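Record type: monomer structure entry
Structure origin: computed from sequence
Chain ID: A
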Amino acid sequence: MRIGLVGYGHGGRFFHAPLIATLPGATFVGVVTRSPERRQQLASDHPGLKAFDSIGQIVEAGVDALVISTTLKGRPALVLEAIEHGIPVVSDKPFAANAEQAQALITAAERHEVLLSVYQNRRWDSDYLTLRKLIDAGALGSITRFESRVERYSPQAVGNASGGGWLRDLGSHLVDQALQLFGPVDRVFAQLQFSAEHPTVDHGFFVCLTHANGVISHLWGSALQNSQAPRFRVSGTLGCYTVEGLDGQEEALMAGKTPKTEGEHWGAEEHRRWGWFEQGPERERVPSEKGCWTQFYQQLQQAVQGQGPLPVDAYDALETTRILDAARLSAERQQVVSTKIE
C-alpha cells in the first residue's frame, strides 16, 4: 500500500510520518509541502523521501491513500481535492470548522465513492483502552460520571488558531472518546477561556455533556494549567477509576522513537503510570493496556483493501463536530443547548 502525506507541520511530522514510515506492508511515497523549512526537516528526518509541490503531483507518482495534516483553515479544500482525484483520504482532526462543512466533505466522498476517515488516534491511547476494558467487563458497574482532561502549561500555544482554538482542536478528541464510550448526547453546556491578547481564540474550555443514557461527561482542556488534574476520573456504582498523565505515545514520537525502534515495548506504560481502582477503603493498581496508534493505519490498510471497516467513520467525526458547534453556541449564549434529534 502506497501512502502519501500532505503537510509537514507539527502533526504531519510527529504524529503521522513516523507511523507511516514504519508501517509493515506500506510504502511512504512522500510529502506534499512547498515550505523550504519543512522540506529541510523532511530531508533530515527521512533521507531520500521525495517532497512534492501539489496533490496532483503525488497522485501522479501513485498513491493508494492520502493523509491530510495541514492547518484547519485550508484542510477541507485539500481533503476535497484528494476526494476529487478518487483517492481514499484521511483528514487530521478537527475534521471541519463546523458541521455544515463536515457534511459537505462526507457528501463529496459518497458522491465520488471514495473512502474518507478522520485521524482520531486517541481512541488507541493506553488509558482509554484500559478504561474501555474496565467498562466492558462491568468492573465499575453503571457509570454515572465521566471526567476527562487534557491540561498543559504551554503559554506558546495560547492564540494558536491552527486547529480552530482549543475547544475545536483538543476538544475533538475528548468529545469523540465520550461519544464512543457513552453514546448520543442530548444536552451541552460549555464555558470557554480567552486571553486579552487573543480574544477570539480560546485556550481553555469546560464542556458538560448529558448523554441520552443518563451518563454525565465533564470535559476540560487548557493550555495554561500549572497543576494538572487526573486524565480520567470515572465514577460508577461499583467503584472509580483514575489515571494521571497523558498516554506516552506522543512523548515517544516527539523524542524520535517509533514503533519500529521500540518493538514490543511500543505503547507500554511504566508501572508508576498505571491507574487506580478505588471503592471505599479499597485501592489497587490497574495494569494499563498498551497504547497502539499504529492500529489506526493497520485498519486503514485493511479498509482500502476491502477487508474491513475504516478505523474511524466520518459520520462519527460529523457528530463530534455537531457537539462542538453546540458547545461554542452554549458558551456564547451562556445557556444549555439541546442537541437531541427528534
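Annotation 1: The domain at 122-292+322-338 is CATH 3.30.360.10 (Dihydrodipicolinate Reductase; domain 2).
Annotation 2: The longest helix spans residues 314-333.
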